Amino acid sequence: MTAALPPTLQRVLKGKSCAGCGLCAGLDPAIGMTRDAKGWKRPVALGTPAPGTDALLAKVCPGATISPWTLSDAPETHPFWGPHVRVLTGNSTDAEIRHTASSGGALSSLALHLLRTGAVNRVLHVGMNPEKPLETLITRSADRDDILATAGSRYAPVSPLETLRTELEAPGNILFIGKPCDVGAMRQLMQADPAVAARIPYLLSFFCAGTPSQDGTDRIVRKLGFEPEEVAHFRYRGDGWPGFATAETADGRRARISYAASWGDILSKEVQFRCKICPDGVGGAADVAAADAWYGGETGYPEFEEADGRSLILTRTRKGDALVAAAEAAGALSTEPLAIGEIRLMQPSQANRRRLLASRLAAMAVTLMPRPNMQGLHLGEARRQARAREEAKSFVGTVRRIVTGRI
Ligand SMILES: Cc1cc2nc3c(=O)[nH]c(=O)nc-3n(C[C@H](O)[C@H](O)[C@H](O)COP(=O)(O)OP(=O)(O)OC[C@H]3O[C@@H](n4cnc5c(N)ncnc54)[C@H](O)[C@@H]3O)c2cc1C
């Protein structure tokens, strides 16, 4: 008998809804992760799945069911920005972390605070593969040096939950940091399995516009004048805010391009289909979510050259709110309150995606593509803010992309 993926995953792959998080492989050794032609991570059958795997995946896989915002105990939920206890801007008070990190180092400083207080024993997240610097791999951090080495965004495929079983076999509590889909998967697994929840006291996430293909990284490298094999170190941004996509070779050559050129001209055009229909690019399932608090405008890009990093911080559960308060009291993080209406100026593309999501889902329905379950995500409220004309354009564009296979 040939090995086959569980029906839930077959349906997820048919609907192009796989996020690539790797949770399926992390739960059942009969499932592995492989790279497709563009370098995205996808599940592959290695054997016969355990009897309960399919039913569990139907509940926890973020290609099958999106974690509902209603799981949060936050007092308020905004139709675009999700559950929130407090809305803040802030930065790490550790100048090196702030400079190295993606925006203001909020996530790295919270991680370091949790390690220093002993609330967690290690952090499970991702970073540059030192052996293959254009690739991204699972990383475990236990001290400040580890956290510094891992700070920053990796705009590339990685499956942070692929090793979950072995991570849980080792003793100690774990902080998990991941994209909204990764964290949503963990939140749903923790709902289904209290033993997992007991080991993972906090989930941190960030706003995410989508995972670009691995090809996107190669395109940046070539634009910088290098061949991918020559690169000995690669970062997408950070080392300033927003910082530069920077490649270095073993013989000391170095080239860089701006965030607008790397994300705007290349990576944003390489994003997988699952991310274009993501109802939760804002990390609504996390205890705390961070993002870029751009001093921007309607463009969604920073309207400045370089500045000291500043994170947008949403505390999304009471526990997450207490964590931010404790990190501030310990002097690890500095924050200021922000009016929630200001977020739209910092993150216009996230608002657009939420507004137009219903039209994209309708396009999937008429083309008979299976869609993930999306309950408890306030999609109706977000949709009411869309104009009929832009919805129609989005619907037709999505149908056209689906039928011509350009997804
Ligand atoms: C694919 C992607 C899309 C993004 N889209 C947006 C967006 O739409 N709007 C926006 O404001 N910001 C976006 N960001 C960046 C995000 O703004 C910053 O990560 C956030 O501001 C937190 O900054 P920080 O300085 O607190 O994080 P840091 O202190 O630098 O910590 C970042 C953490 O994220 C983890 N991480 C990095 N890359 C990945 C990855 N690919 N998968 C899982 N975990 C990862 C790291 O391991 C690290 O723990 C995106 C990042 C990624 C990787």
What's the quick description here?
This protein is of the alpha+beta class. It contains 17 helices and 15 strands.
What topology emerges from the helices and strands here?
Blueprint: H1 7-14, H2 23-27, E1 31-35, E2 41-45, H3 53-60, E3 76-78, E4 82-84, E5 86-92, H4 95-100, H5 106-117, E6 122-128, E7 136-141, H6 144-150, H7 164-169, E8 174-177, H8 180-192, H9 194-199, E9 202-206, H10 214-223, E10 231-235, E11 244-249, E12 254-258, H11 259-264, H12 273-276, E13 288-292, E14 311-315, H13 318-329, E15 333-337, H14 343-346, H15 348-366, H16 379-383, H17 388-403
Parallel strand pairs: 6-8, 8-9, 9-13
Antiparallel strand pairs: 1-2, 3-4, 5-14, 5-15, 6-7, 10-11, 11-12, 13-14
Helix pairs in contact: 15-17
The structure holds flavin-adenine dinucleotide (FAD).
Flavin-adenine dinucleotide (FAD) is lined by residues 101-108, 125-127, 150-155, 158, 160, 177-179, 182, 206-209, 211, 290-292, 311, 347, 350.
